[in-house]
Every structure is written in C-alpha cells, then in structure tokens.
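Ticket #4471: complex job returned nothing on first submit. Input attached below:
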Amino acid sequence: MTGERQISTMNYGSSTLLGVAAAALLTVLVMVGSRNLENYDSALFGYTVASVVAFGAIVYRYALWLQRPATRIYWKRGWQLYRQRNKFVKNTGSAAKTFFGNIVAQKFIFKRGFNRWLMHFLIAWGCVLSAMVTFPLVFGWVHFELEGDLGYRAYLFGFPLQLMDGRSLQAWVTFHALDFTAVMVIAGCAIAIHRRLHDRGAIALQQFLLDFVPHLLLIAISVSGLMLTASSLWFQGYMYSFISLSHQAIVIMTLFYLPFGKLFHIVQRPASIGVELYQKNSAELTRALCPRCKTDFAGQMWIDDLNKVVSELGFDYTMPDGTKLQDYCPRCKRVMRGLAYSGLANKSDGVFQGARAAAAKD
Amino acid sequence: MKETMFIDPQRCIGCRSCVAACRECSTHKGYSMIHLDYIDRRETTATMPTVCMHCEEPTCALVCPADAIKMSEDGVVMSALKPRCIDCRNCVNACPFGVPKYNSEIHLQMKCDMCFDRTSEGLKPMCASVCPTGAISFGTYEQIVPLRRTKPVKSHVFGNQRVETKVYLMLPTDAEEVSVDGCGVFEGKVAVDAHEDHESWMESQSQEANKANEF
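Support reply: We reran it on our side without changes. The output follows.
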C-alpha cells in the first residue's frame, strides 16, 4: 500500500526521456572531448558504453527520486532559498562549509565512530579519486603522449599540459595513482566486512545484495586492477589480457549496479547540502510553536511544507479545530494520544472497582 | 513473524525499565527509542509508554525524501537506512505517534524497530522482556489476548485520518479505536497550563525532555 500512494504520482515517461537525453549528452561530450575520437582509446570501448548507459540510468533514477512529493518540495525550496539575492553569498558560504564537512571530511560519520569513518573515508575517496582518473581516460578527455626519450605530456581535451619526466617521482605517482586508490578501497572494504561479520546490530539488519555485494565488487575491481600492475611490472604481462577482460567485466557490473543499489547514495548524498541549507534558513524564519505546549520546535516554513507533502500523499490529519496533527510537537502528540486513551475508560466498570469492591457488591 | 507488541498503558507504572532496556538493543546502542510520558503531571501519575506502532501505511516512510525508511516483509517499519538518511527530520514531525528520534550530529534518524536483532532470532524485544507489569508484551494474538480483559485494537483516528498499525493497543472498553481529536483533557479537567507544566525531575535526568525528539 505504501508503494501505491507513491507510484500514483510518478511519471516514468519524463524520467526515461531525461535518462536518454543524459546518455546522449555524455556521448556527444565524449565525441567533442576526445576531438572526434582522435584521442580515444578504442580498447576502452566497453567501459565507455557501460559508462554512458549507467549515466543514463543514474539520471533516470535521480529524476524518479525527485518526483517523490517530499523530495520535490525539498529540491524546489532548497534552490529557491539558495537563490535569494540578499543571502546568496551567505548561502554559498554555508553550502561550501557543509560540502566540506559532510562530503569531503565526512565529519558526521566520524561522530558515529572512528572505525566507521576510516572505513568510509578510505572507500569513498578511493572510489572518487579512481573515478577522477579513469573516466577522463576512458572518454578520451585525457591522454598521454611520449615526447623525446623519457618525456610524457598529458593532454586535457586535446590541450597540452606540462611535460613530465617519465622517471620522476611525479610520473611514478601519476601512473600508479590507481594502485594507491585500490589499496585504500581494499583497506576500507576490509574494515567494513569485519564490522558486518562481528557487529550484532549490523548482522541483524544487513542484506547480502545491499550490504555485501558492493564491497565484494569493489574488492574485486581493486584486486584485479592491482593484478594488472603486477602482471606488467613483475610477470612480463603474464595473463594480462585475461585479467584485463575480467577487470572490465567487474567494472561494468559495478557501473550497472550503481543506479539501483546501495552505491546510489553517492549521487543522492549531496542533497544533504540542500537540506542543511533549508534547515538553517528555516531556523532563521518564523518559528512553529506547538499549539498545545507553545514550544518552539521547528521552522514554520518546514511544518507548512510538511503539511503540504502529507496531504499530497493522501493523508488528512486535520483536527476538528482546523489544526493539523503535524502542527503539534512530537511529545504533545504522544500526550494527546495518552489523554485520548485515558478518556476511554468507564470508571463505573467493575475492572476499576477491584476485587474487594466487586465482592462487597455481591 | 506472527508475533507483535501489545501495549497496555493502564498497566504502566512508569518504572522506566523499558527505557533503560531499550538502550541495550544492538541496532541503536546506547540510545533508548521508547518514550515514556506523563499524560498530565498535575492530575495523575499515569504514564504513557510509546513505542513505534509500525503503521501499515507509515507516514514517516512516505514523507522521507531519501526513501530511507523501509518496511520488512513482516510489516516492521525499520530505522532509516544509514547511507540514505539526510537528516531532514520530516519523519520526526510527520509521525502521528511522535515516535522517531533524530541526532543531527550523526545525521541519523532512529526509531523502535521492534528489536529486529532479537526478534529475528526468536527473542522478545528488550522492552517487552523487562516490563514487570505486562504493559508492553510481545507474542501472538492467541497467546496474549486470552490472558487480558482489555480489548486489543490496531486502529487510531487522528482528526480525519484513520491509521492502522501492526502493534496492538489494549483498550479498557469496547471501543473499536482510539480517537485523537484535540489537545486532550484528563478526566474533564482542562489542562489550561499545559505549556507551563514543569518537566519532571525524572524526564530532565534521563534526557527525555527534548520535545522535538532529539537524542
């Protein structure tokens, strides 16, 4: 039944169109960024197709997600508040601070526990840095050319960047960047899996497909990636093409898993910046006072928006005096229910007289 | 899972064993998800224990912009999924029972999930296993109801909205539901100074006094 209320408001057609348009746009950007495929490495064709499809699917899912009544109102209101002229600079500063605290440093996870933070930080930054290296290479936006005996020059969208010595520390770090990020991801996943095997709370709630599969996929990608380095560095390319094909297959599986599994929170999470902006602005505007206890418990704009969402979902919590149940603070809602319960008892009932009173009557 | 919770507020003696025991649950370690409120501290010592009623159509889950609150196959409404919860607190203010709690520091909403870690292993939830008076009981309908003179109902009416739940409330009458249609009074005495009610010593000591449900 929960799904029915939600699905009735969903428009799959527009989301599909947006997804297809996004995939088409990325294809055009690949063409343009690689200078008409001039700098494109055809060996990476499989990765490109998978990335384009996954990108379309992510946009489709995101567009569907934004259609949820609550998400839509937060999205609209968040942008509306951000664009206020008199607060634009302040809002930008606040959003930047939230971005650094929540997304870059992930402080809120640190407060859940150091091990959880370390685990998430290693996996998140391992994946993000890997993506920042691999996607531009796959799309032909970045490529390297040999200049002279040892010189390497990187090109971004066909524009030359600085020349580097192929034997320098900078070159070593650049060419092994994915090895470092692979180690970060493996370490993070190891901590996560250890927790999932030992924490009673996690054991009770976890599901294989949601909670283990992403870690297993990330470990498989990282290990096979490291095997590619090992094969070329120390084993004269032994089994290189097989490892390369396996690596590609696992990466493609992960890309397709991205829009529909746990990893979707990577694209969903930045919405918390908008939510925080909304909450901060709401806190500065008119406050909602609970009609019963007069406590200031939330922003009025927030409660008004919430009431809109609740009625859009088909609920009608209107009380006889015209207030909505959601206007009351959580504690008063509990107390009101308690008072309603206590009013039900008929005090003349035998159950309230006790055994002695009942015996005396007899 | 055929078992569910049976809440009988008239049996509650306000001992707060459930509140303490709830903190031991592995899925929300250290934080109690039970609310125990005095319904009118001036007039009565009566307390109202509130656990999640696990609505059949949970308003909290539907107003969640991140789609973070899921229902198990057994109809248990779970705490927000940690990776998804974006700390918007819509659920906290939308819940008709005033149940979900939140903590902005860790960006997380939490609520009673019927001790999923215990019930999934055939154990009783922490609160039900320690309640000395049976105000909170856990079992099947067939096990609990024949032992009581009170009537189990799973329907509440808040204003114009009927809410059906998985958890039963035991009523002292033949009424079919509990109707909440206003601020409420205790035994005819209007709680005119509801906002002037002092927090009880117990509430302030146990950090339960936050009316916005922050833990």
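The beta strands of chain B are 4-7, 35-38, 47-50, 101-103, 108-110, 136-139, 151-158, 161-171, 178-180. Closing as resolved unless it happens again.
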